[in-house]
Amino acid sequence: MDLNTLWFILLTVLFSGFFFLEGFDYGVGILLPFVAKTDRERRAVINTIGPVWDGNEVWMITAGGAMFAAFPHMYATLFSGFYVALVFMLAGLIIRGVAFEFRSKRDNPKWRETWDWAVYYGSLIPAFLWGVTVANLMQGVAIEADFNYYGGLIPLLNPYAMFGGVVFLSLFITHGASFLAIKLKGEIQERVKALSGKLWIAAVILTVAFLAWTYLATDILNNPGWDGLIPAILAAVALLAYGLFLRMGREGLTFLSGGLVIVLATVMVFSGLFPRLMISTLDPANSLTIYNASSSPYTLKIITIVAAIFVPIVVAYQGWTYWIFRKRLSPDSSDLHY
Amino acid sequence: MDPVILSRWQFAATTIFHFFFVPVTLGLSVFLAILETKYVTSGDEIYKKMVKFWGKIFLINFAIGVVTGIVQEFHFGLNWSEYARFMGDIFGAPLAIEGLMAFFLESTFIGVWIFGWDKLSKGAHAAVAWMVAIGSNLSSLWILIANSFMQNPVGYAIRNGRAEMTDFGALVSNPNVWHQFPHVVTAGITTAGFIIMAFSAWHLLRDQSENNEFFKRSFKWAAVFALVGSILVGSIGHAQGQFLAKSQPLKIAAMEGHWETEAPASFSVIAIVNQEKQENTFDVKVPKFLSLMLFNNLTSEFKGLIDLQAEEVAKYGPGDYIPPVTLSYWSSRTMIGLGLLMVLLAGLAVWWSWKDRLTDLKWFLKIMIPAGLFPTIAITAGWLIAETGRWPWIVHGLQKIEDAVSPAITPGSIVFSLVAFVVLYTVLGVVGVALMLKYGKSDPAISEGKGE
């Protein structure tokens, strides 16, 4: 396997980690106004992700950095081409990040309500826009021969991509609900679990519809490179397992299957793209691939060494933090810091 | 409107705003880790109280630093995609390494630090504080390795229409890094010291007797911190100036407002610069002093902007190679002037803390409150020199700013994002400063234990 392929896989790993971890963070943020009624309840919900959200967000930042380092043309084309959408996403991430820190810094109910809405929109907007972005990657965009996409925002908001955004939202919310189920206790946890069944049904319907549309509108599921179909089927199975474990009341396994859905869906997208990174709808020759968009072999070698050392270390200490903060929270817990 | 100018404004706004907050966290993370270590070794509860109290100021800054940092990470693709294509092979690697080595470390352990007080042993919690401090300062190392290439390219070859890395070791050992990085780290230490002294001075002026010991002790630690920081930042800055005289002569000539070549070179104290006419209409000079400062002798020649411009034209073809001189000149006077003043203030602060005379010297405490802003002003001035002094290059000698901007973005969309970001930064800035004032002025005896 050459380094270009290795970095394609590493990028898949980083995006899988990002969607898995930030997926439930976004989900929790979106569920906030629906599952928590009082200030103490909202505080408990936010504090379930309090110790970990910042570390989770670094998966996105590192995925972006790795994309820049390994496939600079993809970084350049994607971020300049999807400019306005990304500005909205960044704005969402800005208000969400400070909201966690700021919300409990004053007692004023209006103040806290404002920042709770910032958490909500700051989770909703990025989650939706990542879905739109990924769906556009699957479908391809009008990339010209100079590797630039000049179409602006409007063509990106096509029905398939918008539907992709809705599917991402649905999966993240479902994932977030199962995370809350393992992190909360008491009445509020019951409320989350009661909601989970409905969220799951919605996720199943949306996912099946999206896979069908994907089959018709893209070549992701019958890509001659690698096959996106197998991970797609596995993702569907994991989603069914989610429902099964939910019924059985197995909270931990429900959460893991939800995470698996997201990881497998990410693997599906990347497999379906391989060896392309961004598909051009104008001319296959304009598509960015792991070869024409990559850094030099020397640079790939350097970052491979660094990644080989640090990715396992990061996974180890982040895993440790989840162990430290394994205790469930309730609105009357004494250790709510945010 | 010109997308290059709009993109420059947006980058400047983001970077400057980001760096109002980051130096505070660079220095304060180390300060808190030291205090927490002191708490563990001495068992004295006052140190824990100090860590918790100043920790709030730290976290407010940290939050704003993190969210504006995300914009920074993606800015190179958003507005500077041609730069990303040309430089990705070199610039991407330190950014990816920064994420893997530093951002993960600081961001993961910051959560443990905030939420882990009751879950970890005292020693382990202090170790977590050190992880945050190391992570924060390591991230500045990697971003400065990236930035240093733009100032002083090393270890590369131009191949396949782009700059490709040929020697990672050269990138890391770039002499520019080893001036800039310690300069930034010690600037952070100075910033933390002055901010803590400012809030402590405010409290000591109110003379709340039960908290006097707390703020005297905080002031004393911060004073030592600020003195060490400000002496180092100045000494390193001096070495950096001497290095710049070799690596980026146009930048230093602009800083000094020096149009004509001169041997020995005089140092301009105050001048009115006329960039169009390429002269200073008013200039107060100290003979030979610039030669002494930059070359350690009283004879060396210093090349002026006019000759340097001619050299650049001969080398790179026609064009304007002179950075904005008035901005560089006054930024350097602001930075160096405040830097020297801070050494003096920090020295007095240490002395009078030691003699326990602070509460008698109300005038000094009154000065130390606005002095809390001096490091931030000096740092901003320093970055203005570093970044505008690269003009017209985005990467010195390799790519011009005008060639780096994204072709795919329209002026309209940049205006939209510029307005959106500036509005967001303004709100964040106002809220952040208001919260810092609220917590910095709060009573450490009361705010303790509220769980906020």
Q: Gist?
A:
Chain A has 338 residues and is mainly alpha-helical.
Architecture overview:
The complex is a heterodimer of chains A (338) and B (452). Chain A is mainly α. Chain A is built from eleven helices and two strands; from the N terminus they run ααααααααααββα. In chain A, strands 1-2 form a two-stranded antiparallel ribbon. The longest helix of chain A has 33 residues. The mean pLDDT of chain A is 96. Chain B is mainly α and 452 residues long. Chain B has a domain of 181 residues. In chain B, α1 crosses α6, α1 runs parallel beside α14 and α8 crosses α11. The C terminus of chain B is likely disordered. At the A-B interface, α3, α4, α5 and α11 of A face α2, α3 and α14 of B.
Secondary structure: elements and pairs:
The complex is a heterodimer of chains A (338) and B (452).
Chain A (H helix, E strand, L loop, with lengths): L2 H33 L3 H11 L3 H18 L1 H10 L1 H20 L6 H31 L19 H25 L3 H31 L11 H20 L2 H23 L2 E3 L9 E2 L7 H28 L14
Antiparallel strand pairs in A: 1-2
Helix pairs in contact in A: 1-2, 1-3, 1-6, 1-7, 1-10, 3-4, 3-11, 5-6, 6-7, 7-8, 7-10, 8-9, 9-10
Chain B lengths: L2 H40 L2 H34 L2 H35 L6 H30 L4 E4 L2 E4 L2 H5 L2 H32 L2 H39 L1 H7 L11 E8 L4 E8 L2 H7 L9 H12 L8 H30 L7 H7 L5 H15 L4 E3 L3 E2 L10 H30 L3 H4 L5
Antiparallel strand pairs in B: 1-2, 3-4, 5-6
Helix pairs in contact in B: 1-2, 1-4, 1-6, 1-13, 1-14, 2-3, 2-14, 3-4, 4-6, 6-7, 6-12, 6-13, 7-8, 7-11, 8-11, 11-13
* CA radius of gyration of chain A: 20 Å
Shape of chain B: globular
Low-pLDDT regions of chain B: 448-452
Note the quaternary state here: heterodimer
Low-confidence stretches of chain A: none
Order of helices and strands of chain B: HHHHEEHHHHEEHHHHHEEHH
What is the terminal separation of chain A in angstroms?
Answer: 46 Å
Q: What class do helices, strands and sheet pairing of chain B give?
A: mainly alpha
From the helix content, strand content and strand pairing of chain A, which structural class follows? mainly alpha
Work out the helicity level of chain B. Answer: over 70%
Instruction: Give the total of beta strands of chain A.
Output: 2
SS field, number of helical segments of chain B: 15
Taking all residues together, what is the mean pLDDT of chain B?
A: 96
Question: What proportion of the residues of chain B form beta strands (DSSP E)?
Answer: 5-15%
State which percent range the strand residues of chain A make up: under 5%
Q: How are strands sequenced across the largest beta sheet of chain B?
A: 1-2
Q: Mean pLDDT across all residues of chain A, rounded?
A: 96
Number of helices of chain A: 11
